[in-house]
Amino acid sequence: MHKTDLGQSAFRIAFGVLMAFIILNVAAIVAVVAVNSFGTQWFTGWLPESFTTSWYSRAWKEFQLGDVLWTTALAVGAVVLLSVLIGVPAAYVLARVEFPGKRLVTLLFLLPLLVPPMTYGIPLATVLYQVNLGGSLWGVILANLVPCAPFVVMVMTPFIEQIDTRVEVAARVFGAGTLTIFRRILMPLLLPGIMAASLLVLVRTISMFELTFLTAGADSQTLVVALYYAVFAAGIRSAQSIDAMAVIYMLTTLVWVLIAFRFIDPTQMVGKVRVQKSS
């Protein structure tokens, strides 16, 4: 066996061991939280003395999870809708129109994705509080739009670039207006990309802590911020109730991540656009 083959085999083994170690650690942490959310007492031994589901009902009432989940759904839904309404037309302009300063505009769109949210989150929250939007649901929505709308632009631009411009030109030759072209030609072609961007923005907004924490008030907390306050706010709370809330948050995020992985494959979707283009 050559030295190159030995080096590649050693690298693969080391990489596999490292990945297995990371996965086992994450799985162990999740398992401890999940088991504790059902345990009554867990002082010694590998498992609690007994199990119960009462911690979930207690957490639901204690942390008002019904209101928190409703607020989360409103915020996430609004962010997804507004991000698509802003991002898709912006992506179309960037993909189709040449104008001076286009690279600078593209960089400005991508800047919120390249820098940590805290670097612009504090000035953004200050501005929102000055215009009386901080601490409200609209403040949370607007703050999350800053990174999410550019994310839609980044996802949608390659989809639009893959569509042959001659399709739109031919439609205009036969008398189709802009609205008709968008509704009957572009939308069917862009729908996979819009679905991909929407699901990814949804997952990103659910898990976005920094911007939501800086702009949320008592009545506009999403699930991730409510979980933070449950852990660090003043007062005594049972660890099992907090773990039950954490499990609810993990399951909520995991469901949407699995949906995203199940129905979204960027390479396949770009391939579909190319097939439609060639045909």
Describe the structure.
With 279 residues, the chain is an all-alpha fold. It has 12 helices and no strands. The protein is globular. The N and C termini lie far apart (48 Å). Residues 267-279 have low confidence and may be disordered. Pfam families: BPD_transp_1. It is found in: Cell inner membrane; Cell membrane. Belongs to the binding-protein-dependent transport system permease family. The chain crosses the membrane at residues 12-35, 68-95, 107-131, 137-160, 181-203, 209-232, 244-264.
Features:
279 residues; globular; 79% helix; mainly alpha; disordered C terminus
Short description, anyone?
Helix content is 79%, strand content 0%.
Number of strands: 0
Percent strand equals under 5%
Uncertain residue ranges: 267-279
Secondary-structure class = mainly alpha
Radius of gyration: 24 Å
Give the overall pLDDT as a whole number.
Answer: 83
- The outline comes out as globular
Distance between the termini: 48 Å
Q: Largest sheet, if any? A: none
* Order of SSEs: HHHHHHHHHHHH
Helix proportion: over 70%
Per DSSP, the total helix count is 12
Protein name: ABC transporter permease subunit
Domain ABC transmembrane type-1: 69-260
Membrane topology: Multi-pass membrane protein
Subcellular location: Cell inner membrane; Cell membrane
What are the SSEs and their pairings?
Elements: H1 3-36, H2 54-62, H3 65-96, H4 102-114, H5 117-130, H6 137-161, H7 165-173, H8 178-207, H9 210-215, H10 223-232, H11 239-263, H12 266-278
Helix pairs in contact: 1-11, 2-11, 3-6, 3-8, 4-6, 6-8, 7-8, 8-11, 8-12, 10-11
